[in-house]
Amino acid sequence: MIRSLYLYGRYALGAGLNVPLQRLILSHQKRALPTAVPEPRSSLNAVVDHLLRCQEASGDAGFGSFHLVSGYGRTYPETTGYILPTLLAAAPVLQRPELVDHALRAAELLLKIQLPAGGWQGGRVGEARGEVVFNTAQVIRGMLAVHAHTGDARFLAAARRAGDRVCAVQEADGTWARHNFLGVARVYDTYVDAPLMALSQVTGETSYREAALRNLRWVLGRQQANGWFADADNTIKHNDRPITHTIAYTIDGLLECHLRGGGDELLHAARRAADPLRDRFLRDGVLQGRYDNTWRGSEAAITTGCAQLSIVWWRLYAITNEVRYKEAAEGMVQWLMRVQALGMRGPEGGRGAVTGSFPLWGRYEKFACPNWAQKYLADALLCSMGILPRQ
User: What is the rounded CA–CA span in Å between residue 208 and residue 373?
Assistant: First the structure.
């Protein structure tokens, strides 16, 4: 509580010296989103440009984030990993071949900083943190995407080393509690299972698939009848009302694993969690940041989770052809583009991006434009243009 008050005070002081940020704060106070927004291609170009600015500012070819008060941050290996498939998918759509070069530069960095045991560190470069299973799995996504694009065996070898490490530290119950953030088991490790299943398909090695299926069985046992998942938050304190970001990780991981042959039970579980959020969005036009076990919401909207849920609904529309998924997915993309458009009134470094929360002083990534929100905004825009990224 004291730290939170300190941060708000610091950011308020910073805003007092920053006229563009004052304009952005005022626009978020009014909550009046623009009625006219660019079409998805323009929005995609804008958010990609923002990510490239973050990459250039990192100093090492990886991707950091932009903070509205303190500026650009250091490279985050986890998110750098899963930004790579996004850039590779966007390059032909936008007719921007240079995006491939940016992805390959970042991929070379990830090869360089892979840890001896095979994983990748948690946190940001320079923080000297140990390896984390979830973070490692997201870099596997990037390694597989770059290998598929280039055929360069180094990237597949790195993915295999990482996959072997993830399998080696799995618990008997199928979780990765001791080797993950906070040292606890969480259902959003379905987003670990998906790249493991992809790695199994590419290599023919069944141990990766078997590890994923063990974890998925544990995850399914944590779902309530109304679709809500226990142990879905990335905190201890608020695990009774997880954020939409980690709820969406859980659902999307289930869907990816279903599409990779994991079985219809995974699809049914994903739909039970996706449908209550879809219905709330179609009713209210917005989603809150957290949801408890009765699907009662609280806190400000989290743009990352909103973008991820749009992707989930696009996937479900492609699978089921049910029009309510399409309506929700399209509506959420429109909402995100409106939030993105407000950024043109703010600091130059944040233009093209969405803030972590809406309004920007919400508790999740306050006063910041996290690069993972931009990755999922880009993916949601690609989905709206008919491209469904897999890695």
Answer: 28
Percent of the chain having pLDDT more than 90?
92
Contact between residue 135 and residue 76 where contact means Cβ atoms under 8 Å apart: no
**What's the predicted TM-score (pTM) here?**
0.96
Give the architecture-level CATH label for domain 53-384.
Alpha/alpha barrel (1.50)
Q: What is the pLDDT of residues 201-219, one digit of tens each?
A: 999 999 999 999 999 999 9
More confident residue, 128 or 119: 119
What's the pLDDT tens digit per position in 5-32? 556 566 666 666 689 999 999 999 988 8
Domain residue ranges in the chain: 53-384
| pLDDT tens by residue, 96-119 | 999 999 999 999 999 999 999 999
